[in-house]
From TrEMBL:
Belongs to the Mediator complex subunit 20 family. This is Mediator of RNA polymerase II transcription subunit 20. Keywords: Activator, Nucleus, Transcription, Transcription regulation. It comes from Cucumis melo (Muskmelon). InterPro entries: Mediator_Med20. Transmembrane segments: none annotated.
Amino acid sequence: MPLKWVLHWQPNAGSTVNSQILNEVSQCVESIHGVKGGKWKATLTFYKPILRDQNSPAAEFPRDFLGISLPEQPNKYYLIIRGQRIVLEADFTIQAIMEKLQSYKLRVALNFEGFQYQLGDFQLRVGKVVPNNSENLRGIVMEIEYLPISSMEKSRQIMDEFFDVWQEAMSKSSLPGRFMHIESNFAEYGLSDFYTPQHTAVQYGNVMAQLIATVQAVQSARN
């Protein structure tokens, strides 16, 4: 599977994300000759356990976990237990099974959706982060996918160089923020150098944590 970085938009202190920033990011991709393709969408869901017996020890259950569906793997569903550093691949029907068992309940669902662009050996996906059944913008994400290589180590220099080119192109827009790439410790999840969809799931879990931290920081500043 092609290697991928998942980045999130980090607004400058005192600023927030808005649709104008998303539009300008898309225009920036086109300015470096990105060819616009079709739409894409990934959905990340935050689950909490349903404890019917209050005397039952909560330690028997993961306190919470994330589930994510990826556009490139429509028949699969990925489960991430961040506390125990576990990532699992399941059939997409696991969602219906979980609903019938009623052992976990959905707390929050976020949609990552936008357009994808082709740029030589790279594929970029730029999208907004919105709660399910809402248009309230919560963040902006970008995927950078390098199609020829699946080894993270072998592609590192190429990805770094492309990211530098991208940051330079973005700097011309003078937007109040920048895209951040947070290095994920895939080894903690038992993942190897060879890139898989589980690597993407872990990155989205980390991006969600960063988005939550950004929202909380903005709220604290307002208070």
